[in-house]
Amino acid sequence: MQLHNLKDSSQQVSFVEAVKTGLGRNQGVFFPESLTPLTDVDALLDMDFVTRSSKILSHLIGDELPADTVAHMVKNAFNFPVKLVEVAENTYCLELFHGPTLAFKDFGARFMAECLAQFNQGDKVTILTATSGDTGAAVAHAFYNKPNIDVVILYPKGKISLAQQKLFTTLGGNIHCYAVEGSFDDCQELVKNAFLDEEVKSTLGLNSANSINISRLVAQVCYYFEAIAQLPKAKRATAHISVPSGNFGNVCAAMIGAVIGLPVGKLSATTNQNDTVPRFMLDKNWTPNATLESLSNAMDVSKPNNWPRVQSMLDNNWFSYDNFYSTSVNEQDTQTVMKNIQQTGYVAEPHTAIAYQGLVENRAPGAAGIFLATAHPAKFKDSVEGILNIELAMPKPLADALAKPCLANDINADYDALRTEILKKLS
Ligand SMILES: *Cc1c(COP(=O)(O)O)cnc(C)c1O
Q1: Kind of pairing, strands 2-5 and 91-95?
Q2: Structure confidence at residue 158 (pLDDT)
Q3: pLDDT per position as a tens digit, 96-136
Q4: Same domain, 160 and 261
């Protein structure tokens, strides 16, 4: 796979380089020069999820990795199911929350961990990441016990839910967690400082594992094929998929899927009140507002860093603007929609409800609709129970994590303190 930097096309990299580097020069993201359609999509759709996903990823990555290596990586990464549930006539929910941390981020994080373990020739690698919730848990579980790789996770002390926190702070081993006396922005600032510190960067072999990494995106392409494979054949070509969007990585993966031959009619990227892209679609002006806190907090992003990738596919007519929708759902409507879905007998958390509403607003009459459930309702227990007036059972991974002690250390929001600590511990 040959990629170029969307802000500076003279920077060309291989897949391996793009995975190791993450972000390109001038904060530009890497994107494939071209995407070749798959041959015989019908035969692919007949295969099981892991076999098909290995073929799709081999096709995308190309000859940089042998097919049997990719197959092995996929088998390790995708060791939990994807479920398509019909919640109302012709309306399907794609459940992506059956992984170890109960959110779709497990797919990308686990495949990225396989990639880094594969590309690493015995060098020391340290994943340093700040989390406001779901990413930390997905990354920690994905890299847990991977040889030669340490993970350092910073989170704002007391500002994330106990369930979110316990999903990564209870692992131990190569997962090192710090509760920072400060905000999420303070945590991000500490990470930024570390990446500017050449000594720390080279001594520890820093990598951020954040959501702009191309390995996470290509992994996510696979479950869109699984969704369509589980749909009756006659409904496939015109199906409409709605993706709850924050950083726009997930919908980018759907679009890459469509470009390489996924039978799908239309795509919706549905946001919460942080509606930079929906407003851009109306007047083509890019005017991000200050980020607002929402019930769907994993989508509280006003400058989505995967948007340049989506826009490049639309501007190059790889996917038609006519088939792409982006609308927003406000806080009041998010709650109303959660209650509407409850009427069908299904329980959706806020992110999932937003995807459902994107479908209701934009789908053509008669077309099958698929909305993505990106997190298990129990991950957002308080808001779900409060809004729907129900009690949720705790799924096993969450109950297990809650029963274990937190192994995080407290640290001040002070770069010198962090620097001393991680150099002492990891070099
Ligand atoms: C991260 C996340 C999203 C947003 O996905 P993007 O790829 O950033 O658009 C939606 N829902 C949940 C539960 C998430 O954790």
Answers
A1: unpaired
A2: 85
A3: 999 999 999 999 999 999 999 899 888 889 999 988 777 89
A4: no
Whether 370 and 270 have beta carbons less than 8 Å apart is answered as no
Query: How far, in Å, from the CA of 425 to the mean position of ligand 1?
Result: 32
Q: Which domain, by its residues, includes 334?
A: 82-104+214-388
How much is the pLDDT for 208? 80
Mind listing the pLDDT tens digit for each residue in 222-249? 999 999 999 999 999 899 999 999 999 9
| Neighbouring C-beta atoms of residue 279, cutoff 10 Å | 17
Whole-model pTM? 0.94
Work out the average pLDDT over 169-186: 92
Count of structural domains, the chain: 2
Domain of 144, CATH number, reads 3.40.50.1100
> How far apart, in whole angstroms, are the C-alpha atoms of residue 48 and residue 285?
43
- Residue of minimum CA distance from atom 8 in ligand 1: 247
User: Are 8 and 28 within 8 A, CB to CB?
Assistant: yes
pLDDT value of position 374: 96
Scanning the structure block, which residue is given the tokens 């990891």?
A: 426
Q: How many CB atoms lie within 10 A of CB 75?
A: 14
Expressed in angstroms and rounded, the spacing between residue 374 Cα and the centre of ligand 1 is: 7
| Ligand 1 lining (C-beta closer than 6 Å) | 103, 105, 134, 211, 244-250, 298-299, 351, 374-375
CB hemisphere CA count around 165 (13 angstroms): 19
pLDDT reported for residue 362: 92
Cα of 360 to ligand 1 centre, how many Å? Answer: 20
377 plus 234 within the same structural domain: yes
CA distance 138 to 199: 28
User: What's the CA dihedral at 34, 38, 39, 45 to 10 degrees?
Assistant: -170
Nearest CA to ligand 1 atom 14: 298
Q: Is residue 140 part of a domain?
A: yes
Percentage of residues in the chain with pLDDT exceeding 90?
81
Say how far apart CA 356 and CA 342 lie, in whole Å.
12
341-369 average pLDDT score: 96
Do the Cβ atoms of 234 and 198 come closer than 8 Å? no
Q: How far is CA 167 from CA 19, 293, 408, in A?
A: 25, 22, 12
Residue 301 has pLDDT above 80, yes or no: yes
